[in-house]
């Protein structure tokens, strides 16, 4: 035990020394910034540019829409640090679990169309799903991570999603709940997309795959560029993702006293923990693999984590919903369904003992300082997209440098969000006077 403690201290000391060297001695990259914003939101842009200068931002985009109109759309840094490829207006990025929120919006659209009912069993739409104790799992339980299906018996090749969907369905149909459905929740980090994608295909009158459903029902109609699995022809626009070096991650956990991140790291490293088993479930290739930055991996539609977009398009999507769901192109979601998305279905600490998130119908639901519900989904490393219906605002934030492993929102995004709300208050006051 004493040897382990000594090794831990040594790792921490080395992490601090390397961090200080990288921060204060190594020559920083030139600052790149671009975009547009309403003059009243200059503060947001200034904070963003400062984070580019101090190295907190390496390559990212941030956007905010109010009443369906873009007030902030900025980006900066590098889409690929090694080659110095700049982040541009058209750069796309993998959004990890923020993809789950987009898929929840698709499910809500199905509810509006009468193709899906949250209260009905999944087996109503997918009869073979009902075997092995899954017959009473409702659509709501599945979407809110209460189905007990975060852990699978074995894994399947990722390529089957594209090449052998029937094999994927057979694999999922044979699974047994890890806990009695409805008795608690635990994050279905990998399996959410496998099960929900299959459900949407089964419930869709045309039985389309999830990427085609989004393109035809939302993307093309409302002008939102988002891909669940990106075509090889567009891979050249995708930012190269990289995790924070270990020394940076450790430094941030220590300096921010981020006990959540430390607890999660410990849980993932414990082979018998629910989180560790979840992370090794579903498919054989996971987001942490080296295959992450390859066209072969990125083209596969998996709604748990393989969506590709940028802040502008995410803010537009959630901005439409935050503004009541109606546009000149048509109705994305009805107000009734939007109200349902604001309802939390879980509370308290999850069965894995680490995550504490209020999940609704496929989205995370939190209350702001005034008690208003906002909803959407975060993703690994800092990705964020959500709707604030009380303030008619939609937000998107996407970063190529994966900056955290905590369930807390990214620190830089929180800075932009706070500045946006300050600016919005002044902006609305000025509008009232004119």
Describe the structure.
The protein is an alpha+beta fold. The protein has a domain of 298 residues: Beta-lactamase. It is 39% helix and 16% strand. The chain is built from 15 helices and 17 strands. The strands form five sheets. Strands 1, 2, 3, 4, 13, 14, 15 and 16 form an eight-stranded antiparallel beta sheet that branches. A hairpin with a 2-residue loop joins strand 11 and strand 12. Helix 1 packs across helix 9. It is globular, with a radius of gyration of 21 Å.
Structural class estimated from helices and strands: alpha+beta
Biggest sheet features: 8 strands, antiparallel
- Per DSSP E runs of 2 or more residues, the count of β-strands stands at 17
Amino-to-carboxy terminus distance: 69 Å
CATH hierarchy, class of the domain at 28-103 and 212-433: Alpha Beta
Radius of gyration: 21 Å
CATH superfamily of the domain at 28-103 and 212-433: DD-peptidase/beta-lactamase superfamily
The portion of residues assigned to helices is 25-40%
Percent of residues in β-strands: 15-25%
> Which architecture of the domain at 28-103 and 212-433 would the CATH scheme give at its second level?
3-Layer(aba) Sandwich
- Give the averaged pLDDT, no decimals: 89
Low-confidence stretches: none
CATH topology of the domain at 28-103 and 212-433: Beta-lactamase
Q: So how many helices? A: 15
Shape, principal axes of CA atoms? globular
